[in-house]
């Protein structure tokens, strides 16, 4: 009888260990998923989201039938591909509501892909509206809208504010460019990216744009 009870006790102990291990595995899996799939979206998603500046300019280009709104986001050598895609979707999107939806999606994805490739960053698709974005990125965008650095005041170390102010000043001085002056638009984007990099705390010399 004692032997039977001992065996049952050991079996119960083993089942409990298996349950605990499964629980630990589930928690570990959830953690890894959060780190590798969710965290990058919060950190890096900006120009590749439906709420980001690239898509905002793509919508303006379509509304005003002017591809120059988006050319500042791509390298000179990539202009032809974007112009070709734009001309194609402007012809197709008028055919039906379905054609409009698919054409716009195609243009958004093409633009973001080419833009990200130009940055030296892998294209992982256009993230949906509402994708979490880092607080510093949101604050940097708001600073440009407001024309001052107050949104970033409590997010950037005080010893960095002098340099941030210089970069912000350059962004604001280049902001009001003619949309048809693509060269001026690219100068603005270059200053914009450098400002965002510094606001996010990225090291100098990092050529990978993850704004």
Descriptive notes:
The protein is an all-alpha fold and 211 residues long. It has three domains: 1-43; 45-133, no CATH class; 134-211, no CATH class. It is built from eight helices and no strands. α2 (53-64) packs across α5, α4 runs antiparallel to α5 (97-119) and α7 runs antiparallel to α8. Residues 21-45 and 205-209 have low confidence and may be disordered.
List strands and helices in order, with pairings.
Blueprint: H1 2-44, H2 53-64, H3 68-71, H4 79-92, H5 97-119, H6 135-146, H7 161-174, H8 182-200
Spell out the helices and strands N to C.
HHHHHHHH
Strand content: under 5%
SS element count, helices = 8
Outline type = elongated
CA(first)-CA(last) distance = 70 Å
Compact overview of the structure:
The protein has 211 residues and is mostly helical.
Structure characteristics:
disordered C terminus, 67% helix, 211 residues, mainly alpha, 8 helices
């Amino acid at each position: 009888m004692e032997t039977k009870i001992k065996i049952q006790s050991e079996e119960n102990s083993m089942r409990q260990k298996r349950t605990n291990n499964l629980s630990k595995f589930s928690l570990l899996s959830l953690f890894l998923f959060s780190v590798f799939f969710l965290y990058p979206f919060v950190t890096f998603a900006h120009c590749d989201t439906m709420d980001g500046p690239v898509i905002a300019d793509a919508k303006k280009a379509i509304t005003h039938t002017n591809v120059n709104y988006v050319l500042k986001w791509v390298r000179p050598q990539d202009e032809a591909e974007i112009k070709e895609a734009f001309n194609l979707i402007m012809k197709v999107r008028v055919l039906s509501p379905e054609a409009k939806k698919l054409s716009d999606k195609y243009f958004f994805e093409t633009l973001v892909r080419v833009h990200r490739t130009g940055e030296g960053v892998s294209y992982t698709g256009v993230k949906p509206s509402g994708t979490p974005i880092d607080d510093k990125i949101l604050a940097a965008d708001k600073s440009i809208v407001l024309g001052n650095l107050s949104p970033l005041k409590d997010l950037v170390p005080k010893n960095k504010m002098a340099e941030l102010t210089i970069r912000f000043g350059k962004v604001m001085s280049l902001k009001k460019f003619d949309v048809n002056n693509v060269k001026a638009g690219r100068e603005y984007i270059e200053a914009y990216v450098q400002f965002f990099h510094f606001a996010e705390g990225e090291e100098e010399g990092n050529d990978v744009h993850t704004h």
